[in-house]
Design a protein that fits this description.
Elements (H helix, E strand, L loop, with lengths): L10 H14 L4 H25 L15 H18 L2 H11 L3 H14 L9 H21 L19 E9 L2 E8 L5 E3 L18 E3 L6 E5 L5 E7 L8 H7 L1 H9 L3 E2 L8
Parallel strand pairs: 1-6, 6-7
Antiparallel strand pairs: 1-2, 2-3, 4-5, 5-6
This protein binds zinc ion (ZN) (2 copies).
């Protein structure tokens, strides 16, 4: 069940999961600590965005229609302060810098992300994307929750709601096995996707799609493609029903290094750039 089909995003469970994973994976402590504060802040942003946009029906213009800057801009400074207080040194420094820029610069930063993010095949520096992405994620999730669901298809390589590339795969229990979904890197919508099919290039020969599972992360599948050399991480909820895909992916830092050493790239990095 997609959380976005049942109301708002599950911020509580994201925060709780980040706490759990901090104990399990101490090397991810700094990232997960920042993420916990962020997710808490995103929850309050979501509530504010939802109450201010109720009457205007923003989804009428499509998920990626114009940003409602009168709702967004007043919250941006508070968001920057949070990152300045809770982020690692480099991000905190960037937050300080952005907070000194004009509101026109803020608008350009937000609009550029809103228009382009998740769509391009080019990898965009995760660091550059961090601020607009973390700030606009609740807004994108809000719009996704207000957008009519598209007809079911199982081969769409981009999000049927917003046209973005997937962040991770999600295996949900079905019958004796798992059914694969893709989780959108932009609006967090989940859509059905065939299990034996590369979501980057469409390769469907099983012998070109090797799957690796590290001992340290038994519930995370590294689904590689030898045709295009991209890979997708899939969070396997049949192995760990408590996993929260968005959060478990953040903790899996060693898998990024592992894939990189073997020449596989990730199409969409996660929020923290791994
Ligand atoms: Zn989407
Ligand atoms: Zn491929």
């Amino acid at each position: 069940m997609n959380p976005l089909q049942t109301g708002g995003p599950p911020y509580d469970s994201r925060v709780r999961r980040a706490e759990r994973l901090t104990e399990a994976y101490p090397f991810a402590k700094e990232f997960l600590g920042l993420y916990r504060s962020l997710a808490g802040f995103q929850e309050s942003l979501f509530a504010q965005f939802a109450s201010s946009t109720k009457s205007s029906n923003p989804a009428a213009a499509g998920l990626r229609g114009d940003l409602d800057l009168t709702v967004l801009l007043p919250q941006f400074r508070g968001f920057l302060s949070l990152v300045e207080q809770k982020g690692p040194a480099a991000l905190a420094e960037s937050a300080r810098h952005i907070s000194t820029l004009s509101s026109d610069s803020w608008v350009s930063l937000l609009n550029a992300y809103w228009t382009e993010a998740g769509r391009s095949d080019q990898q965009v520096g995760a660091f550059a994307q961090f601020f607009p992405r973390a700030f606009l994620q609740p807004y994108a999730e809000l719009r996704a929750s207000q957008t009519p669901k598209p007809p079911l298809a199982t081969t769409s390589m981009v999000c049927p709601l917003c046209g973005s590339r997937p962040l991770v795969g999600v295996l949900r229990p079905e019958g004796d096995g798992g059914k694969r979904f893709l989780l959108c890197s932009f609006c967090s919508y989940e859509w059905d996707f065939r299990r034996i099919l590369c979501p980057t290039c469409g390769e469907e020969q099983e012998n070109k799609l090797p799957v690796y599972i590290a001992e340290q992360f038994p519930h995370i599948r590294v689904e590689t493609c030898d045709a295009c050399r991209f890979y997708l991480r899939s969070i396997d909820l049949t192995k760990d029903g408590n996993a929260v895909p968005l959060v478990d992916d953040l903790a899996a830092i060693p898998l990024t290094l592992w894939a990189h050493e073997r020449g596989y790239s990730r199409l969409q990095p996660n929020l923290l750039g791994t």
